[in-house]
Design a protein that fits this description.
Elements: E1 3-12, E2 19-29, E3 34-38, H1 45-53, E4 60-65, E5 68-69, H2 78-81, E6 82-85, H3 89-92, H4 99-109, H5 115-125, H6 142-154, E7 160-164, H7 172-189, E8 192-197, H8 200-206, E9 209-214, E10 217-223, H9 224-228, H10 235-244, H11 249-253
Helix pairs in contact: 5-6, 6-7
Bound molecules: adenosine-5'-triphosphate (ATP).
Residues 12, 19, 21, 39, 41-47, 198 line the site of adenosine-5'-triphosphate.
GO molecular function: ATP binding; ATP hydrolysis activity
Domain ABC transporter: 3-240
Family: Belongs to the ABC transporter superfamily.
């Protein structure tokens, strides 16, 4: 298994006000697999991803990546193995740094050589001409910015990409381009991907398997094939499926809180 999570728990706040944002999640993802974590806003998807990525070090349970059990604080080498891409590329790219600097910094921090060749290669890999090196984020379109954010994650040649709503901030036409890019990168580099989204269509496009979260728990795990056939078992998942097929008045009015 590339990622193995056992009984992950994350709480925010203390005492009587504590919220169990992640409430005992167990899941595993094979090498080369693309796994989707879906659910409504606030269900705990991003919190799972942030614990796996090392961004949040306040959790209990067991997280192993590539066979190594992870402590909450990660050693530097972890980030060569596992990188995260965020929803909002504008917020996650430094506004006063050129693309060149954005991509050089991780290369320098990890002491990797051949920065120039590496940066040219990774830009081509995400479909950007090397001339983009000397631009600033505000000179790029939303899709180009997300390509730079993906390049920044890939420049260290990781084996795992964690993606938090990687297309939700983009126009619909650009969303398709970025999904195609991620599919190609996954095939070419044999990447393992974990993708968090509220959008089942994105999961159907990119993933092999998915888990549905509700209120901090996994309520159902299924293959994308089962999702396409509508073969969900849990009422909550069926409801999510109906809601994702566009606005459906009956579904919206009948929406129930499956606690
Ligand atoms: N840093 C934080 N401090 C306090 N509460 C938080 C924090 N981060 C998340 N939460 C709470 O934890 C719960 C799960 O949030 P999380 O962001 O993981 O959900 P999500 O399913 O990813 O939703 P979204 O798509 O809106 O990000 C929510 O109730 C949220 O308000």
């Amino acid at each position: 298994m590339m990622i193995d999570i056992q009984d992950l728990r994350v709480a925010f706040g203390k005492g009587a006000d504590a919220i169990a944002a992640v409430d005992g999640v167990t899941l595993s993802v094979r090498e080369g697999e693309s796994f989707g974590l879906v659910g409504e806003s606030g269900s705990g998807k991003s919190t799972v991803l942030r614990a796996v990525s090392g961004l949040n070090d306040d959790w209990t349970g067991r997280i192993a990546v590539d066979g190594t059990v992870q402590r909450p604080k990660r050693p530097k080498g972890f980030f060569k193995l596992c990188q995260m891409v965020f929803q909002d590329p504008y917020g996650s790219l430094h506004p006063r740094h050129t693309v060149d600097r954005i991509l050089s910094e991780p290369v320098a921090i990890h002491g990797l050589g051949e920065a120039d060749a590496r940066i040219d290669r990774v830009l081509r890999d995400v479909g950007l001409d090397p001339a983009f090196r000397f631009r600033y984020p505000h000179q790029l379109s939303g899709g180009q910015r997300q390509r730079v954010a993906i390049a920044r994650a890939l420049v260290l040649e990781p084996r795992v990409l964690l993606l938090d709503e990687p297309t939700s901030a983009l126009d619909v036409s650009v969303q398709a381009e970025i999904l195609n890019l991620l599919r190609r990168l996954r095939a070419e580099h044999g990447l393992t991907m974990v993708l968090v989204t509220h959008n089942l269509a994105v999961v159907a496009n990119l993933c092999d398997r998915l888990a549905v979260m509700n209120r901090g728990r996994l309520v159902e795990e299924m293959t994308v094939e089962e999702l396409r056939r509508g073969a969900a078992r849990e009422p909550y998942t069926l409801q999510l499926l109906r809601a994702s097929r566009g606005y459906d008045r009956a579904a919206a009015e009948g929406f129930r809180d499956y606690a």
